[in-house]
Write a structure and sequence with these properties.
This protein is an alpha/beta fold. It is built from 14 helices and 16 strands. The chain binds pyridoxal-5'-phosphate.
């Protein structure tokens, strides 16, 4: 670069000068290794400031489903930027948001038909919880102030979302005593656990607003998979005790588990669904909480107090909605779900060698999610660094090494990722 007097491998000035002022997520700032400076991201490649290229196995927390910087999404955002980046959504609407609302309602199963926009997965969950609480208030039911949520679950980092995550073993256990109390139960993976939940609901249903669950995959809580019967049991119990059922598809939505939404494969439709992450194809923050007509009807009234009192400043941001519309068009124009199926097969084959390796507890694949669960990890930072040495970006958490690549990843790039996982895990 002309005028660049840096020595080889020396980080750029913005890095050295700015890092001391940044507070990074989920990181002990005193001991965390320095983060990698990224200067470009294209397809499944991250380009670092020193010129190195890493093959990306995470798709930026599962958001970048079409790969980074997809020209089709970029063009849509640029067009929208020239026309109108943002207007508030109170009293004003615009084409991108209403088009997206119509599209989401058409894509989602059942009668999920009223879309409330916000800006992140956590807030989409907060809105879902608030809708459920107010659903009962508006209907005149008193005391339905708790939720049933599942052990191993993770629904975000805001207060309400933390309170429906696993408060014993999850990352927010520290706050357990400060959060609103809920019923955190075993996923009804068998009839015994379903009977235990049934027994709880038989005595406490009138204190409960809704059941919330991540369908098919509990993501950040440990990449645990369950099958459709679990969700069908939850639907049946919600119906039996007249509770609302919330699916948090922030992780699973938009193809990750093999169908456009996990609930399609689950054969169970929720009353409220939370979506975010891949909604904009990883371009920018946007979320949607979508309710059925039954839920919406409880808010439809001549009484202003029955309105949903929520409205983030950047809700339905026009750039983000343009990105989301373009992303949905890519799902229509390109064979994304077939690509997910191919990735699933390649992950299954590529990670099979980890089975039986010393220290490996389980290897599992669902859709475009590949997981190698280790018995334990003593030094997470060292493990993460090993992947960078192999030329890939893979970011294990806890004892979980996982791959959630872009659906557009090339076969040879995916092989580099699975080879790296096998090599690194095999060397532990
Ligand atoms: C299932 C689920 N819900 C909610 C969230 C929170 O989303 P965000 O990080 O956008 O707030 C996440 C994030 O990983 C998630 O996986």
């Amino acid at each position: 670069m002309a005028g660049d007097t840096r020595k080889k491998n020396e980080p750029p000035a913005w890095y050295a000068q700015g890092l001391a002022h940044a507070w990074l997520p989920y990181a002990q700032m005193k001991t965390a290794p320095p983060p990698l400076p990224v200067v470009a991201a294209q397809g499944s490649r991250l380009v670092l400031a020193d010129g190195r290229e890493l093959i990306d196995g995470v798709a930026s927390w599962w958001t970048a489903c079409h790969g980074y910087n997809h020209s089709y999404i970029r063009a849509a955002v640029e067009r929208q930027l020239a026309q109108m980046p943002h207007v508030m959504f109170g009293g004003l609407v615009h084409e991108q948001a209403l088009t997206l609302a119509r599209r989401l309602a058409a894509l989602l199963p059942g009668d999920l038909s009223r879309v409330f926009f916000s800006d992140s997965g956590s807030v989409a969950v907060e809105v879902a919880l608030k809708m459920a609480l107010q659903y009962w208030i508006n209907r005149g039911a008193k005391g339905r102030s708790h939720f049933v949520a599942c052990k191993g679950g993770y629904h975000g980092d805001t207060t309400g979302a933390m309170a429906v995550s696993d408060t014993d073993e999850g990352m927010h256990a520290l706050f357990a005593g400060f959060l609103p109390p809920n019923f955190i139960v075993d996923l009804p993976e068998d009839e015994t656990k379903a009977a235990a939940l049934d027994a709880l609901l038989a005595t406490r249903a009138d204190a409960i607003a809704a059941i919330i669950v991540e369908p098919l995959v509990q993501g950040a809580g440990g990449m645990r998979f369950h099958d459709a019967r679990v969700l069908q049991r939850l639907r049946a119990l919600a119906d039996k005790y007249e509770l609302l059922l919330i699916f948090d598809e922030v992780f699973t939505g938009f193809g990750r588990t093999g169908t456009m939404f996990a609930c399609e494969a689950a054969g169970a439709t929720p009353d409220i669904i939370a979506l975010s992450k891949a909604l904009t194809g990883g371009t920018m923050g946007l979320a949607a909480t979508v309710a059925t007509g039954k839920v919406f009807d409880a808010f439809w009234s001549d009484d202003p107090k029955k309105a949903l009192m929520h409205g983030p400043s950047y809700m339905a941001n026009a750039l983000a909605c343009a990105a989301a519309n373009a992303s949905l068009e890519l799902f229509e124009r390109e064979p994304r779900l077939a690509q997910v199926a191919d990735i699933g097969s390649a992950l299954g084959q590529g990670l099979a060698a980890c089975r039986g390796m010393r220290g490996v507890k389980d290897v599992r694949v669902k859709g475009a999610i590949g997981v190698v669960e280790l018995e334990r990890v003593d030094n997470l930072d060292a493990l993460r660094a090993r992947f960078v040495e192999e030329g890939v970006f893979v970011r294990p958490f806890g004892n979980i090494v996982y791959l959630t690549p872009a659906f557009t990843i090339a076969a040879e790039e995916l092989k580099r990722l699975t080879d790296a996982v096998c090599k690194v895990v095999g060397s532990l």
